[in-house]
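dumping the sequnces here before i forget
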Amino acid sequence: MNHPSRRDFLKGMGASAAALSIAGRPFSRRLAVAAVPTAAPQDEGGTKPMGYAVVGIGSLAMGEIMPALVKTKLSRLTGLVSGHPEKARHFAKTYGVPEKNIYNYENYDQIASNPDIDAVYIVLPNSMHAEYTIRGAKAGKHVLCEKPMCTSVKDAEAMIAACREARRRLMIAYRLHYEPYNLEAMKMCRERQFGPIRMIDAEFSFVIGDPTQWRLKHDLAGGGSLMDIGIYCLQATRYLSGEEPVSVYAEAWSSDPVKFKEVEETISFTLRFPSGLIANCHSSYGTDGLNRYRAGGPGGWVEMDPAYTYVGLVQRSYKEGKTTTTEPTTWDQFVAEIDAFSDAVNHDRDVITPGEEGLRDMKILMACYESVRTGKTVSLA
Amino acid sequence: MNHPSRRDFLKGMGASAAALSIAGRPFSRRLAVAAVPTAAPQDEGGTKPMGYAVVGIGSLAMGEIMPALVKTKLSRLTGLVSGHPEKARHFAKTYGVPEKNIYNYENYDQIASNPDIDAVYIVLPNSMHAEYTIRGAKAGKHVLCEKPMCTSVKDAEAMIAACREARRRLMIAYRLHYEPYNLEAMKMCRERQFGPIRMIDAEFSFVIGDPTQWRLKHDLAGGGSLMDIGIYCLQATRYLSGEEPVSVYAEAWSSDPVKFKEVEETISFTLRFPSGLIANCHSSYGTDGLNRYRAGGPGGWVEMDPAYTYVGLVQRSYKEGKTTTTEPTTWDQFVAEIDAFSDAVNHDRDVITPGEEGLRDMKILMACYESVRTGKTVSLA
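..and the predicted 3d for all of it:
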């Protein structure tokens, strides 16, 4: 994994005054809907910004992604794909998207002939990621797909193959790879500023609301808190250590067997890495407000708490007996992530978090569930 | 486990201005040696304070326990047991202990006929705890014994039996059961101030110094970081949840096979409790400065960081969207712990952390090592 420097990302990242809200999703920030841009943005070189069709108008698209596409420099919202025509028309009007660029799940493939749309951003329930990525690639569009990439290793492989065949880029929306404090933490660990990393502990939890939502249905989500938020802990262990785990052990439980009939509420997993390093991870849909990781070595440690929210991230590091604490973040992670994808496509460069990165996670997530089922440590070698 | 209220402990607890030092042991506080008390202290009722012989003059005895015995209200230092006569004479003089009350490991049993000595405080390497507890009880003395209680379940059982037979009290020096912030955290969790506790994560690490010290020798320590500091994480999971674990899974590793030839450097263990609760624990002799636990439920969480130091403990709790942070502690945990033992003996009351409490930990610690050896989850039922 190669990462641009912190400075590259800080550059051009507009500070947002939006406050962190804990309501609903643990990292939500409910903004008043942004105003219609008066003119299409142009990047510094005068290149036409990449046009994105957002596929799926759920809370993430409404609260974060569409508002971010107003602030991006290299990207703009040019299409919408939704099963709800009225909702689509409402947001098309709000964001200045022509009505002709609204699609539904049946006529989605017709985006192929729409030159306004260069890429699709898949923001659907997890189990739909594969189909809409593959159809998007077949329609000749680049694909930015939310995490988790999908719900099976087989689907992840099919998504990669489809994009490769169509000669289109595939990026998984691991936004923290584009977030300065996380990049700084990676750098500290990879440069061995604390010596070799010998312990990582990561936790992410929130209390899930509406018991009828798709995240609690196995067919749509592919799993419970692990797929949705445990994946952030897994990602942190991998991007901080720079290593790939060789084994995993996991245990899961649910305090409410009715609400969590189909997917796990809480899961703990222990990863072993080639250096010997052990990482403890813990995610839950039944505990409020855990949002943290810490990586340590003989020379100290770096912590993020909160680590995974959209704004308000705080980094603490400890070295030579001194603790340093940053200000909470205010920048927009989605702006950075989306423009990073546009930039890679524009310059025909590899993306930082390609499909292969998502596939690696899918293999580990599935191994976690295998460990829960068997009660045994699962080898990833 | 029954615990007195926070108020009981705050009462009469002298604040210490000593600063937290990270040098050497992770929770060390190196004080100038206290002055000789000019008169023997008396408790409020005029009862003669309990006389303690400290058995083993190592860094803990020198840095914490003997200085604490100057500040205790119900307890005072009246004897010393050491293999180093000159060191013993030096500290006898410093603390006003008569020379006749100095013993060595051979004539230790003669404390039986010394009325100045009511109790022994065992501060020896772990594997010597059993012998000196049993000989102390046989000499008719009450026994306060440092943690870990010993190095095997069999020894723990023999220690309990010996004290029962001699009709003497046995207490394991789990000082955090006598520390107000930890008591407050217990109370918050047991009273379900956050709802039922659904996640606990605990870490304790420091970089161990001198490679020749007894803590790195299996015969003396009985294990590595688990026995010395992982036990604090285990204790936290038990006293916060109020439950006894039903299974444990553990993995261990050492980055330096020479320094850690006999005992583990780093160990991760996952405990499962009857309610379903999972706790992740992590201890290391190879990582600097991790010292924390957090317990959370649907209504929020309580964290201690640092959690296990002698002074400077900080509690953060999160409830109803609000985070509360305490001032760092300044009180002397050893004063509270030792006087709690004297008080229990004086009033012929059960102690809060008896031998049975230590025995429970010994069974779990040994199960951790069994899990490391076998690679399997070990049942504790």
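The longest helix of chain A spans residues 355-374.
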